[in-house]
Amino acid sequence: MKIVVRQDGERREIEAAAGATLLEALRSAGALIEAPCGGNGTCKKCRVLVRDDTGVSYRLACQTPVCADMEVTLQKNRAMEVSTAGAGRRWEPDAGAGYGVAVDVGTTTAVCRLYNRVTGALLASAGNSNAQIVFGADVITRIKAADEGHLEEMRSLIADEVESLVTTLCQRAGVRRADVGEIVLAGNTTMEHIAAGLDPHGIGVAPFSPVTLFGKREPFLGGSAYFAPCVAGYVGGDITCGLLAVDMLAERDPVLFMDLGTNGEMALGDVSGIVSCATAAGPVFEGSNVRFGMPAYLGAISGVRYEDGLMRLQVIGGEDPVGICGTGLIDAVALLLDVGVVDETGRMLGADEVAIADEGAQEGAGVPSDGSCPRALADRIFELDGRPAFRLAGDIAVTQEDVRNLQLAKAAVAGGIETLLARRGIGAGDVAKLQIAGGFGQFLDMRNAARVGLFPTALLDRATSVGNTSIEGASAVLLSAAARAELRRIVERCSYIELSGDPTFDECYLDAMEFE
After folding, report:
1. 401: left (phi > 0), else alpha (psi -120 to 50), else beta?
2. Any idea what the Cα angle at residue 402 is, between residues 401 and 403, rounded to 5°?
C-alpha cells in the first residue's frame, strides 16, 4: 500500500508492506527517524504526527501499523554538530601517491577527510549523522537489528553516507572521484563489522567474540578499504587509532585515554605498554535514555550555568532549545548537586524540601557556597509524572530518571578507570594526563564532569579534550607507512580487561554509584 510522508514542506509517497509498522516502512524508504531503543517502544523518540481513518494524533512509529490512506508528518531534519578535528602527532607522508580518504564511522556520526597523499595536505573534511540510528542508538540495538535481518540495510546506509561525503569532498577540492585511491576506515568493532557486511552477533553475547579484529583490507564502496585493527569486541579501531594519534607508547608517565560516546572505552598506558577496557555506559552521553534528550543536533542544550542570579543555557547553533544532549545533562546535574536539589544518593528533592538561600546570598551571585538553593532555581522545580523535575527551558526538564541513568553511566566509567588503575598498581595521582576524545569531550565542562564523578577529582587539572582522535589516527595511517607500523605495535602492546564479572570492577562500580 502507499502512504504519504510530509517533511520540511515536501510531500512524497512511499510503499509500505501490509502488517509492517510505520517505523519499518519509513526505514525502508530511507527516512531518517530516530529510534534509539531499536523499535521497542521505550525511548519515545520516533513520535510522529499521523492522520488516518481514526483521526489525527501523535503516535510512536514503532508501535503504529501502517494502513491505507495514512499520512505521516515527520519532524524537521536537524543538522548535527560533528567533530571533524582532534589533537594528534603529525606524521610525514610516505605511504603513496594520488588522493586518499580517511573515514571515522562512529555509532552516531560519520566523518571523512580527503588528502593529497604526496604532500600530506588536507583538502577537505566533512561529517554527518550515521543514518543507522534508525535501527537504534547503541551497538547492542544495532547488533539486535542485524540478528533480525537488517545487516545489509545498515551496511548500505553507512556505505551510502560515506560515498555521499566523499563525493562532496571531491567537489569541494576539485578532485575527480575516480582519482581517490586508498581509503582507511576506523570505527568501533561493531561499526567495522557492519561496514564490512560481517555478522556482529558474536560481539553481543558472551564471550563477546568478533568475526575478525581487522587490520586488513575489506570490501567497501565497490572496491576495498583498510579497516583499522581492533583489540577486542568492545575496543575497536577508533580506539587504536586514537592511541596512535596521542602517541601513547611514547609517553614516559602513565596517561589515561577515554572515548565517551555511546560506549565508554578507555586505555591506560605509557612506554611500558597499554591496558584497555570498555564499560557498558549506555547511550546517555549521546542524549539517549534521557526524557528530553537528543544527540548534538542544532538546538540541543550543551551547557548549563547559573551566573549573576540567572540560568544561562548554551545551545548548539544558538537556536531556541529543543532538547538536551549529554554534556548539558552533566552540567545540569552538577548544578543541582551544588544547590542541594539532588542529594548524594541521586534523589531529586521536591520544591518543599530544598533549603532556600538567604536573600543576601542570592543578590547578583552564583551558586551559594553553603549548598543552599537560590529561589530562582527552586522555582524551577515542578512535578512530572508524580516525581520532582527541574525545568531548564519551556517544557525541557531534567527528571529523576535522567539523574538515575546518568548515575549508572558515570559509575560504569568511574569503575572502569579504577579497574585500570588497580591493574597497573597505581593511583589517580600517578596519572600524568587525562585525555578525553570524541565530540562529547569537546563540549564537556571538566569541572562538572569531575563534580558528578565521571573521573577522579585528582585528575581535574590534568584533563583535556583531544577531539576526534579516531579520524586523526586514520589520517596518519592513510598518509604514513610508519604510522601504520606504529598502529600494529599499539595493538600488540595493548592488553584488554573484560569487565563483566571482574570483581574489582564490580566493587568499584558500586562504590562510584553515589555522588560525592
Report:
1. alpha
2. 90
- pLDDT digits over 443-458, tens only? 899 999 999 999 999 9
C-alpha cell at 385: 509524572
pTM for the full model? 0.85
- Of the given ranges (107-111, 158-162, 286-290), which has the lowest mean pLDDT? 286-290
Structural domain contains residue 93: no
Which parts of 399-513 fold into alpha helices (H)? Answer: 400-424, 439-443, 446-451, 469-479, 481-493, 503-511
Inter-residue contact 303 to 330 (CB < 8 Å): no
Statement to judge: residues 129 and 155 lie in one domain: yes
Residues 200, 204: Cα–Cα separation, whole Å: 7
Q: Kindly tell me the sign of the dihedral angle through the C-alpha atoms of 410, 411, 415, 418.
A: positive
Does some domain include residue 17?
yes
Residue 487 located in a structural domain: no
Dihedrals phi, psi of 338, to nearest 5 degrees = -65, -30
Please name the residues in contact with 290: beta carbons below 8 A apart, sequence gap of 6 or more. Answer: 284, 324, 326, 329, 402, 405
Number of alpha helices (DSSP H) and beta strands (DSSP E) in the chain? 14, 23
d(CA 472, CA 454): 25
Tell me what the mean pLDDT of segment 368-395 comes to. Answer: 93
Residue with the three cell numbers 532549545: 321
Of 230, 245, 260, the residue that ends a domain is: 245
In the chain, the number of structural domains is: 4
- Contact call for residues 210 and 233 (beta carbons, < 8 A): yes
Dihedral angle sign, alpha carbons of residues 121, 476, 432, 281: positive
Q: What is the DSSP string of 96-110?
A: -SSEEEEEEE-SSEE
In three-state form (DSSP H/G/I as H, E/B as E, the rest C), the secondary structure along 172-218 is HHCCCHHHEEEEEEEECHHHHHHHHCCCCHHHHCCCCCCCCCCCEEE
Domain limits at 348?
Answer: 286-400
Q: Are 63 and 38 in contact, with CB atoms under 8 Å apart?
A: no
Exposed/middle/buried for residue 273 (C-beta within 10 Å: 0-12, 13-18, 19+): middle
